[in-house]
Amino acid sequence: MTDLNEVDEFQSIISIENKCNRLNRNENIYGTFAEIGAGQETVRHFFRAHNPKGTIAKTLSAYDKDFSDAIYGLEPQNRYVTEARLKSMLDYETGLIEQRISRIKHPNKLFFSYGNTVATIDWAKKYKGHGWMGVKFQKEPKQAYSEIILHVQFHENNASHQQLSLGIMGANLIYAAFYQSEDPKKLISHLYDHLTTDKIEIDSINFSGPVFEGVDNRLMSLQLVKEGITEAVMFSPEGNNVLAANILYKKNILTLRGSFRPVTNLHMNIYEKSLELFLKEKDVKKKNTIVIFEMTLSNLKTEGEIEERDFLDRADLLCSLGHTVMISNFQEYYKVVEYFALHTKEELGLAMGVDSLIDIFNEKYYRHLSGGILEAFGKLFFKSLKVYLFPFKDPETGKIITSKNLKVHPRVKELYKFFLDNDKVIDIQNYDPDLLDTPPKKAYDLIMDGDSHWESLVPAKPAKMIRENNMFRKNKNR
Length: 478
Fold this sequence. Notes:
- The protein is α/β, with parallel strands linked by helices.
- It has helices at residues 16-25, 41-48, 65-72, 83-100, 159-179, 184-190, 217-226, 244-248, 265-278, 297-300, 308-320, 333-341, 354-360, 372-380, 413-421, 440-449, 460-469, 473-476, and strands at 29-36, 56-60, 110-119, 130-137, 146-154, 200-208, 232-235, 241-242, 252-257, 289-296, 301-302, 305-306, 324-328, 348-353, 386-390, 392-393, 400-401, 425-427.
- It folds into two domains: 16-215, Maf protein (Alpha-Beta Complex); 245-476, 3-Layer(aba) Sandwich (Rossmann fold).
- An eight-stranded mixed sheet has the order 8-7-13-10-9-14-15-18, sandwiched between helices. Strands 2-1-3-4-5-6 form a six-stranded mixed sheet, with helices on both faces. A two-stranded antiparallel ribbon has the order 11-12.
- The protein is elongated and about 85 Å long.
C-alpha cells in the first residue's frame, strides 16, 4: 500500500529532487500547497520532479489580502504573517481535500496540506523578513491529523535567495513528515538538508497529533539551541513553546539568570525585590512588563551533558510559579541584552548576585571582541539598562558585599566606578537577610543527600512537586 514503513535506503543526504520523486511516486500521499508571500517555491520542486500529479491535488497563492480573507477568514488585527493564519490555512485545506476526494473511492489515501505565510526582505534591506510554515498530514488512512508548525527568520540579503531557501525547507519538511518523523530530533536536523543556519533560522517548532504522541515540545525547543539552529527559545507558564518576538514586543523586560536546580526562596526574593525596583523606574509600567527566568546551556549541563528529565523538572517548577522561561546559548550578558533589543525598545533590567557582577567585569570573556570589554559594555549598558544587585555574605568574615564595596580587577576599576556613579548598578534593599546563608546549591545538595531540610529553602508549590515526583533524586539513579 505504502512505503512509509520501509527503511530509508539513502545513507547520505537525499537530494531535493529525489525527495520529491519519492513522494510523487507514492500513490497514496496526496495533498495541497498553499503558499503566501514568497511565491510558490515549495511546490515548484514537486512540479519539476517525476509524476507531480501523484502528489499535487491543488496549489494556490492567495497573495491578495482580500482573496486570503475570502478563503481563510478575516484577520482581526489585519496581520497575515502569523501562526493563527497558517493554522487557518492548514485547517481549511485539509477540510477541503476531505470533502472533495472520496474516501470510498480512495480508501488508502494519506492526505496532507502544506502551507507557509511569510514576508521576505524589504526593498530597503532594513527588515530581513520572517514567516510561518507547516504541514498537516496523515501516516495512516483516516488517521487523525498530525502537525509540524515552525517559525523561521531569514538571514540572506536577497529576496530571491530567501524564497529559494524557503522552498528547500518546505520540501524537506513534507518529506520528513512522511519518512523521518519517528525521531523528531533527527527530523529537525533533516530540515536543514542542503541548507545552513546562516540562510534561514528556525526559532520555534511545535509537534502535535498521533504521530508525535508523547513528544514534549520544550525538549524540541532545547534541541534547536543545542544544535546551534537558534540562540534562544522561550516557553510560557503553561509549558508551551512561544515566539520571543510575540512575547517580548514593546515590553519592559527584567531578566534573572540561574540554574534553578531547583528554584529556591533566594531566587524568588531576588525576583520580587528587583521587580519592585524595576517598576519604580520612570518609564516602566507593570501592565507592560515581563520577567524572564533564563537558563543557559552551561546552566543545564551536568557532568558535561544535558539531562533532559533534569531540564524538564527545572522548567516545570518555574512554570508552576507562573514564570516565562528562556533557554539560551548566551554566555555573556551583553548578548542577552542584544537579543532583547531586537524585540523591544523599552526598558531592560538584569537581576543578579554579586558573584555574577564580578564575572561580568572579567576581561577574559571579551577577548574575541575587537573592542574588548569596552565594546561589550557599550552593548550591555546601551540606553538605560539597570543591574539590580543582590548582596553576598562572606562565609568567613560575615561581611556583606554590595555594589559599594565589591572588588573588581584594578584594570577595570574606573570602568566599574563610571557605571556605579551613573546609577547603572542598583543595590537590592529590604531583602531577607536569612537567605544570605542559603546559596541555591545548598537546596540541591540536601535533596541529593535525602535531607528533608531542603523543603525550608524552596517555595511551597515547587517543594510539593519535588517531593511528590521525586525530582532531581531520580535523575541520580538513571
